[in-house]
Amino acid sequence: MASAAKKPKLSTSSLSVTAETGKNVEEFMKALQTKRETTADSILKYNFNKKRIRIISREQMVPDDCEGIVYWMSRDSRVQDNWAFLFAQKLALKNEVPLHVCFCLIAKYLDASVRQFHFLVKGLEKVAADCKKLNISFHLLEGSGAEVLPQWVIDHKIGAVVCDFNPLRVPLGWLEGVKKDLKKDVPLIQVDAHNVVPCWVASDKQEYSARTIRNKINSKLDEYLSEFPPVIKHPYTSKFEPEPIDWDNAIETREADKTVGPVEWAKPGYDEALKMLKSFIDKRLKIYATKRNDPTQDALSNMSPWFHFGQISVQRVALCVQEYKSKYTESVNAFLEEAIVRRELADNFCFYCEHYDSVKGASNWAQKTLDDHRKDKRSHIYTLETLSKSETHDDLWNSAQLQLVKEGKMHGFLRMYWCKKILEWTPSPEDALKYAIYLNDHYSIDGRDPSGFVGCMWSICGIHDQGWAERAVFGKIRYMNYDGCKRKFDIKAFIARYGGKVHKYVPAKAGK
Question: Where do the Photolyase/cryptochrome alpha/beta domain residues begin and end (predicted)?
Fold first, then answer.
């Protein structure tokens, strides 16, 4: 960290939450619980918006002889402020049966490292503890939902399965697998608890840009950006106990790179998410509008790890931040644009575009311009290994990559620069996209997320963007360069913090 007198000045990193915030967070939690209880005594007394759900199965009615309802948790790993959890409890209360939560843990997920599995599993450990207090059984099952859930449902006479929404290919495959193998008299119901406006409500097609989806979402916020009722202590007790869970072993036994471990600044779980939210509201929100694109300033919410794993509801965060609209109007508006409109645009793209992680998913103009410039000479060509090790000729790029490796998070403005340089320094757009997605998914806590795929696709393939002045390699894809960053912020200060060096360029030998 740059603190010596001769080094460039840099604001203190927000990647730490003070003890004072920790003390205040208990009061914050109590206030939120009071809001839930004031909203309704329970989900049975609340007018649940049925447009939040999609019935995936043919069967819609819970069988009379069922002995429980299960919430198949996957994308939204939290108890409170979770529409899927609430809907599952509604079904269980109506049918006067126990409520179960199942999380199906797979051995390997895309390019995730132990860093992400640690954040996920330690967060689930807290979910299980919260469930126990509420007389709700939590089960950690080994394998994908498609592999293990249908039989579990049969074994325990479960009457309905409520699941999360996820627009990505692999989770959609799990959903199809469960749908295919689930008992025919058991309804399978999906709830979008991740987005404020459910993805299928916001739009029924792939949107071209933020401009085309913004009003579709904002016009529905009066209906959807509402307060939550509480998940309550469940009055019906399960006849069987969950299998004991060895949480540390659950992390240890994943097939993931163990050299990329947990980070210090972001601790998993809802309580930790609230601490970060409180520190954002208290300290950083006031400068968010003016300083969020300056990587040397401490202006970001830093909520993305908890958003990605669903350990806190974006809707809850939006409700909390919105309370400061009269005090910090521009900042609140800018944050809601990012947290709701831009994030939900990413879900829209991944849900409606089959090729959300491929050059084939780009608009025709972008595919053509990338193809036209496919054979342009690159000034530098780097391997994935060189990029991973932050050993390019560009000290700013190297510093951004070091931030990603060390902290599991890269500043949003620099993510764009970082990604566009990968296009400039690799043999083809396909290689660039593959490398960018790998690096993001392997090191970033919030990797393997629609927003990550869209960030890479925006930078390299111009999605949600327009054509710009034509140039070598990029064609009409928007260009970013070192001098442009110099004009935007004090790059020396950022480089001093992360220590990226200028490495001598050694061209790769032919065939390597």
Answer: 67-199
| Tokens read off for 242 | 């969950």
| DSSP per-residue string spanning 17-61 | --HHHHHHHHHHHHHHHHHHHHH-SSGGGS---GGGEEE-SS--S
Domain boundary among 252, 269, 300: 252
pTM of the predicted structure, to 2 decimals: 0.95
Q: Do 366 and 234 reside in the same domain of the chain?
A: no
Residue 74 inside a domain? The answer is: yes
Rounded to whole angstroms, how far apart are CA atoms 430 and 419? 13
Q: Give the CA distances from residue 239 to residues 8, 24, 90, 245, 274, in Å, rounded to whole numbers and listed in that order.
A: 63, 39, 20, 18, 34
Sheet containing 69-73: order of strands: 53-55, 188-191, 160-164, 69-73, 99-105, 137-142
164 φ/ψ angles, rounded to the nearest 5 degrees: -80, 165
pLDDT in tens, 403-446: 999 999 999 999 999 999 999 999 999 999 999 999 999 999 99
Return the CATH number at 438.
1.10.579.10
Residue 35, phi then psi, degrees to nearest 5: -60, -45
pLDDT digits (tens, 9 = 90+) for 125-167: 999 999 999 999 999 999 999 999 999 999 999 999 999 999 9
What residues make up the domain containing 67? 40-195+225-252
- Please name the residues in contact with 323: beta carbons below 8 A apart, sequence gap of 6 or more: none
